[in-house]
Amino acid sequence: MPDSSSARARLGKPTRVLLKLSGEAFCRPGGFGIDTKELGIIANEIKDATRAGAQIAVVVGGGNIIRGAELAKSGDIHQATADYMGMLGTVMNGAALKEKLDSIGIDSRVMSALDIKAVAEPFIRNRAMRHLEKGRVIILAAGTGSPFFTTDTCAALRATELECDLLLKATKVDGVYSADPKTNPDATRYSELSFSEALSKKLAIMDMTALAMCQERKIPVLVFDFKISGNIRRVIEGEEIGTLLTSEG
């Protein structure tokens, strides 16, 4: 396991981060669609973090609206088509988040990997970098724009393209555990892990493609509890929360 103090020290206070939000963050537990209360929580957490001085990109999932992989299991809809339908769900979440951010005074842009000019800008790397430099929050929708890739993989790809200091993986628990803490009282939380350990232990953090990309590009990943108010800001300010995944060396 990497030296926790040195890895955390090297991370310091990140200035540009990519926040990965699942679609479930937009609805109540067990719910569906977009809940305005949950949307407000997301927007205010992002606002809090921007006030701490960070440049923030957000990759949104769409599982609260449609899950392409599950839809394709019936065999009636091809996996590629189902994945495109899931991408459209992320655009809906992105549009909702932009409207809420704008309403609380945070300038934001939705950028889509699919060409939907009426509701979102196309994702162009240089334009996205410029938005960040101007202090705008960018909301990245439609995944990679290609089927068969998860939004986790999109998050790893965009974090690489945008030269982010850190990828924030928002979850419902306060880090990565050796087992499911809900069913195993002996499960222990890791303060820090290497990517190779996470891959070898097959820990359910992100999909393997996303983890491997972050390992290759040396992009640290912080897994944290998004539902604790102020946690994104705490990360920006250098506080030690969640589980930090880093490359060895």
Structure in words:
This protein is 39% helix and 18% strand. With 249 residues, it is of the alpha/beta class. The chain has a single domain, classed as Carbamate kinase (3-Layer(aba) Sandwich). Helix 2 links the parallel strand 1 and strand 2. Helix 2 crosses helix 4 and helix 6 packs parallel to helix 8. The longest helix is centred in the middle third of the chain and has 25 residues. The chain starts with a helix and ends with a strand. The model has no long low-confidence stretch (mean pLDDT 91).
Helix/strand layout:
Layout: H1 4-11, E1 16-21, H2 36-51, E2 55-60, H3 68-72, H4 79-103, E3 108-112, E4 121-122, H5 125-133, E5 137-141, H6 151-161, E6 166-171, E7 176-177, E8 189-190, E9 192-194, H7 195-201, H8 208-217, E10 221-225, H9 231-236, E11 243-246
Helix pairs in contact: 2-4, 6-8, 7-8
